[in-house]
Structure formats: C-alpha cells, structure tokens
Q: What sequence folds into this?
C-alpha cells in the first residue's frame, strides 16, 4: 500500500469505525483500497470475487469482520470479555507479533517467507496488522488482533496454529530448507 493515510481510505475507515460495515458498501471499500493498492490487482479482484460469491450463497462475509459493528462493537466486546480470555488474547497476539517481527528481521529468506505466506493467517492477520511497530500504531495493531481473537470464529485457533508454525521456523537452523514446515 502506497499511503495508508490516503484521504479516501481514512474517510472510509472513519465510517467503518463509527457505524460498522453497514455504513460502507463493499464497492466503496474496494474503491478506497484500489486507490492506494500497490500490489497485484488480482489480489483485490480475488477478495471482491469471494464477497460476491458469498453474497450469492446468502452469506455476508462483512458480518464476520471485527469492524462489523464499528468501534462501539469493539468496545462492547472488550468490556464483555471474560478477564481471563482477554488476558490470553492480549498475550497471544503480542507474542505472535513479536515472533513474526523477529522472523522477518532476523531470519527472512525465500523459503521461510513462502511458508508464512502460504498460510491463511498471512492474509487474515499479517497483512491486517500482524506486525506491531513500537508506539501507538503497534498498540492499535495489538488491539485489532485482540478484537479478532475475541470476535472472529476460528481466528484464535488459527493464530495459535500459526504461532506454532512460526516457533518451528524460528527454532530451525538457518540452513534448513523451510518449505516443509
């Protein structure tokens, strides 16, 4: 993405935070992303096609989004979360983000990146804020991950599975071919 603070994306993001996915049409969101997207256009086309197919099947993928109910939904989810589960979510998301950063900064090679990117969590977590930089942006990334952990069905299990994969990659000798992990 060339500019995450692009006006079109910020305006859509603000509407998502205030009112959730009901306040932003899929087309508006896709157009905002297209305005800043620097990757292959087929990635956005694939996401759009998945949403259209789900709509035809009677499913609303946007309802699964942590932003489905906007910021008020996030706040309610965090307020209503069991304290033990909330602590578990924060710990798991912080650990996963730290492990990912360590892998990418210290151990990155083509084989390891292939293993990481060939997992659904690359798209569901890493691209959406899995790397938490120091400061407020990092805190926001951990918060988003925590909300996903608490609200998205199957997300916590997928994060734990991905954490196991990252731990194995981190423990593997650097000369080992990692595509078998």
A:
């Amino acid at each position: 993405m060339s500019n995450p603070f692009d006006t079109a994306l910020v305006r859509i993001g603000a509407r998502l935070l205030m009112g959730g996915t009901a306040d932003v049409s899929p087309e508006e969101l896709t157009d905002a992303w297209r305005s800043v997207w620097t990757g292959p256009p087929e990635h956005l086309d694939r996401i759009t096609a998945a949403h259209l197919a789900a709509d035809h099947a009677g499913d609303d993928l946007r309802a699964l989004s942590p932003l489905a109910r906007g910021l008020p939904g996030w706040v309610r989810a965090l307020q209503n979360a069991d304290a033990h589960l909330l602590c578990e979510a924060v710990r798991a998301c912080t650990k996963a983000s730290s492990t990912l950063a360590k892998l990418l900064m210290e151990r990155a090679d083509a084989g390891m990146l292939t293993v990481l990117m060939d997992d659904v969590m690359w798209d569901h977590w890493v691209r959406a804020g899995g790397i938490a930089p120091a400061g407020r942006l990092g805190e926001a990334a951990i918060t988003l991950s925590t909300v996903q952990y608490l609200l998205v069905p199957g997300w916590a299990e997928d994060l734990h599975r991905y954490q196991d994969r990252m731990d194995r990659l981190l423990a593997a000798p650097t000369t080992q071919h990692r595509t078998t992990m």
